[in-house]
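Appendix B. Worked example

We walk through a single record from start to finish. Start with the input: the chain for TetR/AcrR family transcriptional regulator, Nakamurella aerolata, length 188.
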Amino acid sequence: MATSAKAKAPTKDRLLTAAHRCLLQRGYAATTVRDLVAESGANLASINYHFGSKERLLNQALFELNSQWGEVIFAALDGAGGSTAQRWQQVIDSITERRDLWFVNFEALVLAQHDEEIRSGLAERGDGARVALARSFAGVTAENSSAADVHRVGSFYYSQLIGVAFQWLTDPETAPSAEEVAGGPNLG
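Next comes the structure step. The output line below is what the pipeline stores for this chain.
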């Protein structure tokens, strides 16, 4: 009798993989212990043994997916052409290709209101995102600018990123094009 690949992986890894899948397919709030057990092939007690609670397992998986989101977005930006519109097109493409990953990250924001671990984890990751966005969009780095400038420029692009993502996730028919985002408001 052949052992399945799922059963060969250590239980802790299977639980994390199951939590990733459940978060992407069902979301945090809708994922139950029963879902995690069924998806992982592990027993109920293993969740508490390895993570202490369902919430700690889901939080760890959430942070791993948040890191994966960062890798996806910054790989897209690093591979983009030189123009700002081309960079924004890469961002928009990443949103449309990985909607599940973007939705998980927006759900984390809602969860942060009542979960200090999630709030502080997102804040820490936000600092890294600001630094990477300042570099990717404006060439502003700690080597050529002050920490305050990196924060200011990164915060501007981070705000744009979240707004663009929200629009593409909720109403792609009227969401701004890459050219519109890159051009900014032309009210003149």
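Two observations about the output. The chain has one domain: 7-183. Residues 7-183 form a domain with the Tetracycline Repressor; domain 2 fold (CATH 1.10.357.10).
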